[in-house]
């Protein structure tokens, strides 16, 4: 334990000598003072880690002292101690941003617990998290060694996301390395599982899990049978760990009813996965059934400009002739206008709202050195997402919906993965540009390094040419051209990309919330 210095201000400080001696025996340094004025002076002269502050002192009262401390030393935790249990005193102290509140008489164990809570909490939590993960490491490893089905993979991924977030604040580099290795092994095994079962899911020879093409029918449409309107918020390129990081902030206003994870189709990109979600059809089925609504990669035009029309067709196919809206939020001004229009949107049975920020953030890790620094790893990527949410029109929308009777869905079309392992590939000028999947003629690659689909029809993807297979990158791999190879690799390494196969891209959230 590092040396912790405690300032204790109480006009009867001499009577607290046993408590002070108890803390000193535990290794803490305690500076006792008799008044608020003395406390302010000591704070100016010493490095103080924690303040115990008596609420009822003559002269400068505890509340007055608290205000001065918080003006000058905002980072120092202050624990108010008082004889009074009157509610207005508690409210005033809490409003002054105290860290804790104790009622006299206090005993040494209470004091010690409060000190540890506010000076050693991070270290103790880190130690406990490390111990708990070490205990579960073997259990997770044994689970991965079994033949798992889709539901078991979802549950394993939930556990990995939990530990990823739980261990993020620990300073133990060794445990970070162990967890990273286990997550990489999980990703390797998941890619193998996904490749073995994906074609069987699509051709009907094996029961498929909840996927892009079925998620609205199975999870959204039952909500439309209820009396309340439904708002479906689609956050483009939103990972499950980002949802878990935002969950507590969102649950200030809404209650989580369902925490679902579903499987994205391939490629895990907006053009394919989101069109499939809105249409309830695979891409080649959309191209055949609604040719006016499908734009191929080599064709001019925005690849997702018909999402609303595809949603309308899916609703009609399943007997939902309902009034619905579709909005895409590309900037804060439009987002706030949308929030102001919620009262009118409540008359619709379904409102679909697209937020593109997370996808823009992902792409910005490639285009901007500043953003790459801000989102340099998984924890930083989540933190930037949370910071955006807390200052975005989305949080205002969540607040507004939290005060109304409605269903709220938060979902996405695919996730993203941090890439760091280049895989060489060659092709002609028509080769697709995505870093995580390639389609085109004359593709030259090592088949052992990719998931190869020579006949796109087998996975219901449009085929541009007879000799145009699809190849998909696994885990943290990305495709790099031999020309200017080193420069290319340096430019794209440690950025967040999507289109291939990984836990982060494929297993994505579909969350149902209601007002409290």
Task: Give a quick summary of the entry.
By secondary structure, this protein is α/β, with parallel strands linked by helices. The chain contains 21 helices and 18 strands.
Structure explained in plain terms:
Helices cover 46% and strands 17% of the residues. The protein is of the alpha/beta class and 516 residues long. The protein has a six-stranded mixed β-sheet with strand order 7-18-10-6-9-8, with helices on both faces. A five-stranded parallel β-sheet has the order 2-1-3-4-5, with helices on both faces. Strands 13-15-14 form a three-stranded antiparallel β-sheet, with no helix packed on it. The mean pLDDT is 91.
Which strands sit side by side, in order, in the main sheet? 7-18-10-6-9-8
Mean pLDDT: 91
Structural class: alpha/beta
Low-confidence stretches: none
Number of helices: 21
Give a short account of the largest sheet: 6 strands, mixed
Backbone shape: elongated
> What is the distance, rounded to the nearest whole angstrom, between the alpha carbons of the first and last residues?
42 Å
Q: For the CA atoms, what is the radius of gyration?
A: 28 Å
Number of separate strands? 18
Percent of residues in helices? 40-55%
Strand content: 15-25%
């Amino acid at each position: 334990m590092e040396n912790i210095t405690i300032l204790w201000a109480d006009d009867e400080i001499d009577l607290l000598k046993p408590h002070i001696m108890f803390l000193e025996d535990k290794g803490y340094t305690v500076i006792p003072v008799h008044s608020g004025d003395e406390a302010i002076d000591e704070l100016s002269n010493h490095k103080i880690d924690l303040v115990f502050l008596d609420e009822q002192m003559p002269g400068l009262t505890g509340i007055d002292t608290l205000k001065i401390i918080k003006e000058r030393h905002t980072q120092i935790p202050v624990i108010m101690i008082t004889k009074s249990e009157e509610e207005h005193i508690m409210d005033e102290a809490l409003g002054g941003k105290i860290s804790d509140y104790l009622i006299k008489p206090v005993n040494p164990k209470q004091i010690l617990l409060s000190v540890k809570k506010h000076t050693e909490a991070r270290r103790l939590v880190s130690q406990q998290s490390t111990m708990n993960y070490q205990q579960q490491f073997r259990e997770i490893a044994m689970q991965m060694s079994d033949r798992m089905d889709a539901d078991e993979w979802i549950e394993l991924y939930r556990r990995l996301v939990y530990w990823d977030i739980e261990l993020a604040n620990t300073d133990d580099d060794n445990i970070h390395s162990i967890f990273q290795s286990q997550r990489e092994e999980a990703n390797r095994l998941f890619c193998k599982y996904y490749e073995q079962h994906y074609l069987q899911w699509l051709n009907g020879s094996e029961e498929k899990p909840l996927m892009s093409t079925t998620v609205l029918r199975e999870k959204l449409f039952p909500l439309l049978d209820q009396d309340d309107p439904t708002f479906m918020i689609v956050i483009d390129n939103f990972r499950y760990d980002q949802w878990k990081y935002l969950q507590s902030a969102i649950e200030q206003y809404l209650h989580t009813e369902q925490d679902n994870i579903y499987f994205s189709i391939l490629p895990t990109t907006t053009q394919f996965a989101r069109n499939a979600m809105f249409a309830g059809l695979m891409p080649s089925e959309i191209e055949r059934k609604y040719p006016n609504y499908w734009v191929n990669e080599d064709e001019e035009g925005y690849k997702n400009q018909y999402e609303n029309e595809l949603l309308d067709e899916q609703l009609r196919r399943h007997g939902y002739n309902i009034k619905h809206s579709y909005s895409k939020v590309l900037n804060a001004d439009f987002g706030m206008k949308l929030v102001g229009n919620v009262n009118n949107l409540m008359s619709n049975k379904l409102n679909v709202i697209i937020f593109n920020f997370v996808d823009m953030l992902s792409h910005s890790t490639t285009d901007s050195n500043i953003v790459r620094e801000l989102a340099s790893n998984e924890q930083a990527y989540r933190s930037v997402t949370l910071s955006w949410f807390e200052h975005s029109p989305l949080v205002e929308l969540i607040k507004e919906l939290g005060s109304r009777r409605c269903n709220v869905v938060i979902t996405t079309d695919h996730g993203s993965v941090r890439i760091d392992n280049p895989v060489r590939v060659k092709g002609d000028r028509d080769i697709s540009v995505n870093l995580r999947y390639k389609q085109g003629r004359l593709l030259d690659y090592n088949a052992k390094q990719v998931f190869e689909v020579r006949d796109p029809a087998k996975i219901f993807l449009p085929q541009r040419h007879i000799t145009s297979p699809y190849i998909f990158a696994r885990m943290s791999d990305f495709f790099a051209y031999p020309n200017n190879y080193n420069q290319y690799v340096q430019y794209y390494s440690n950025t967040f990309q999507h289109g291939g196969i990984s836990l982060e891209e494929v297993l994505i959230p579909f969350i149902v919330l209601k007002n409290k």
